[in-house]
Design a protein that fits this description.
- The chain starts with 30 loop residues before the first strand and ends in a 9-residue tail after the last helix.
- By secondary structure, it is an alpha+beta fold.
- The chain is 23% helix and 19% strand.
- The chain has 2 domains: 56 residues, no CATH class; 93 residues, Sulfite Reductase Hemoprotein, domain 1 (2-Layer Sandwich).
Length: 162
Amino acid sequence: MIPVKPTDTFDSASEEIHVLAKIGGARAGMKAKGVWTAVEGFATPNQEIKTTEVDLPDGDGIVLMVGGKVSNRLSRPTFSKVVVAFIPNETPRWPSTTSTIKRIVDVYASNAKKYERLGEWAERIGWERFFEKCELPFTHHLIDDFRDPAYYTWRHTTQFKF
């Protein structure tokens, strides 16, 4: 149950109070501690009512996408594709993320044609070979087969086709 409007005043007859909190910069394994304090209505002001500690979920991570293009020059715009569905957010230097990006860029630089974009190179060699060459695991989260009806009826580009 989420309240209709945020409030800082609760009815004394309420047995439950639900709280929604947004925590930024949290990493896996951290804990959040909530302390309930009665401000007024008790014999002692600022009396601690209850303390709750919660383990934060392992949900803070990074998704790597490659191959997107916005420009209409030479070919139509393309969407980028997810190549790594989750990398842990390891601040402050992000070692897993930087090593994965470096591996992708190194393989691209040694195999692509001059002036070829990363997405065009991946399309030319095939996405399966892209994952093999970059030594990236392929999972079901990376399948890009969704097409809604607008995909077939709307124009994808501003380029004229006669």
